[in-house]
């Protein structure tokens, strides 16, 4: 991943107070300059480095579903010794990114609500549905309130059902046609944006976004059958030019085919009642 930071006047840059390397893994923990990758013996590069954006961000969360549970978190905060009030980000997703309030969430075209908004009590929460932590950006929520807790949240859920896929498809086609040119340009650049590196990334740039990253791929193929796939990543420490670390890293493995194949998988589940357990522990039930 190539990482950049947005600075006033300067704009997007890989210099400045980055809290992760300019080139790193997806977590930002391993320094990974793309010119320091060496293929292992028995392997060779099959292409140059190319931008490979995460395509899953182009799809909606409910894509392919006929029923979907919409959820949003109500967030509250307080100063020590004061009462709970609405937080600066009163409504967020599970990652802490801001969302519209539950009353402002629009029902997508072709869908209908099955129920009303309700507090999710089926989690580790108190009787009011709240879970508590010291700081929202740190996380570590728990169901028991302590005096040092300064943030709390509760999850609101509402189910919706797809009733007219034709309307949804027509609406999606119109929306996709309008956004196609814009998204194609964004996909060519390949950048993902977020307010901070530890928050969820998204495709479209927002006002609060201060960091961005993009993924690079390079294809490596085997020349020798059975050759180890671990390649040596040579990393030079900028603070000590004489100190060079060598890390063995396993690449992501893909299978490529000349044409698609279709298979049918059949599964059978057999059940019975009033059968004795198959062992003395009693852990094996009557489901075979």
From TrEMBL:
<protein>
    <recommendedName>
        <fullName>Peroxin/Ferlin domain-containing protein</fullName>
    </recommendedName>
</protein>
<dbReference type="InterPro" id="IPR006614">
    <property type="entry name" value="Peroxin/Ferlin"/>
</dbReference>
<feature type="region of interest" description="Disordered">
    <location>
        <begin position="1"/>
        <end position="39"/>
    </location>
</feature>
<feature type="domain" description="Peroxin/Ferlin">
    <location>
        <begin position="65"/>
        <end position="120"/>
    </location>
</feature>
<feature type="domain" description="Peroxin/Ferlin">
    <location>
        <begin position="129"/>
        <end position="163"/>
    </location>
</feature>
<dbReference type="GO" id="GO:0016020">
    <property type="term" value="C:membrane"/>
</dbReference>
<feature type="domain" description="Peroxin/Ferlin">
    <location>
        <begin position="190"/>
        <end position="223"/>
    </location>
</feature>
<feature type="domain" description="Peroxin/Ferlin">
    <location>
        <begin position="1"/>
        <end position="52"/>
    </location>
</feature>
